[in-house]
Amino acid sequence: MHAAKIRRRRPRLLKRSYLFGYGLLLPALIVIGLVILYPMADAIHMSFFETGLLQLGPPRYIGLDNYTALFQNAAFSTALQNTVIWTIVNLIAQVTLGTALAILLNEPLRGRALFRAVALIPWIVPSVAAALIWRYMYDPTSGLINSLLIRLGIIHANIVWLGETNTALNSVMLESIWKGTPFVMIIMLAALQAIPHELYEAGEIDGAGALQRFWYVVLPQVRASLALAAILTIVYTVNNFNAIWLMTQGGPLHSTDILFTLAYEIAFTQFDFGSAAALSVLLFVILLIIGSGYIFLVEREERSSTP
Hints:
There is one protein chain. The protein has a two-stranded antiparallel sheet with strand order 1-2. The chain has a single domain, classed as MetI-like fold (Orthogonal Bundle). The chain is an all-alpha fold. It starts with a helix and ends with a helix. It is 74% helix and 1% strand. Helix 9 runs antiparallel to helix 10 (210-221). The longest helix is centred in the N-terminal third of the chain and has 45 residues, at 2-46.
């Protein structure tokens, strides 16, 4: 009978502990709802209305017209194409360079701590300061890049790197790669340091070369970290508003516009909040798909590692 009383009390205690835990989470959930969920729901609602500062009268419900108008807009097509190029180039360059730097700095080099600290400088520099520094470096009259390339004999006249449609996007991408590569390096360096040294020794004993050791020893061990670095790089790159806006403001002729900067332009230069909300919802859906892919990869990795 005493054991039965204990069994009846246990669900009550568990229920109270759950309620206490949810109560501790409630303030944070309220803040998240006010800061994230409510603006998100408001943006989705606004995307179905014709609304803006220049509109007379209350917002007018227009259904999916904002979305169809976006797909018919040439600036949207250009921004979508730029976003794909911008993201793919940044992803490949940052993951490749970051992984290579991590492998190099994982070796027992003399002054390795100093090299690691220097490699982190681009990531430590605030994004606004980094964009402005690179903008001054690209200056067509007094910029460091033109001066250096002329002295090396690579070019013979100053180039307006950020003012020409065929060089502007590549120039901004160079700054973004410089800024984001150390973040990938940190993730991969942590993963490399977690690999047991015995695996390297086993590869050497089996006669595996450097490339074979990387492919058969290192890569399987850092696969999850590599996926994490790739997903975070994609999300950060798609949302990298500061670099483009501070260096080119999407110009010239929308040649450096991505979806994020185009949404800003539609909202705060054309004052068309309905179309800007529709574009923001599309961008949210894209990032949601990417985030879902990351969660799927993590769960699959956990299931495969569980005995």
